[in-house]
Amino acid sequence: MALIITDDCINCDVCEPECPNGAISQGDEIYIIDPTKCTECVGHYDEPQCQQVCPVDCIPLDPENVESEDELMEKYERLQAEG
């Protein structure tokens, strides 16, 4: 499952540099996560790094983008191949 940033985001800028896939960017009002790039850090870390650093816990799983661990690993491998 990809992650999503909720309206509780305070634009503190700590999540964006932590994303190893470059999936987080500044949106119109808050940061956003590109679900085509988010692997929940599968392939990089044991836990999503953005969730670890978020001071307001506003990065839950995105129910609109359900993916298995295997699908996340496949996405990670595809992103690495695209380099």
TrEMBL record:
Highest taxon, organism lineage: Bacteria
InterPro entries, A to Z: 4Fe4S_Fe-S-bd (IPR017896), 4Fe4S_Fe_S_CS (IPR017900), PSI_iron-sulfur_center (IPR050157), YfhL-like (IPR047927)
Keyword terms of this UniProt record: 4Fe-4S, Electron transport, Iron, Iron-sulfur, Metal-binding, Repeat, Transport
GO MF entries: 4 iron, 4 sulfur cluster binding; metal ion binding
GO cellular component assignments: cytoplasm
NCBIfam families cross-referenced by the UniProt entry: di_4Fe-4S_YfhL
Name of the protein described by the UniProt record: Ferredoxin
Source organism: Ketobacter alkanivorans
Lineage: Bacteria, Pseudomonadati, Pseudomonadota, Gammaproteobacteria, Pseudomonadales
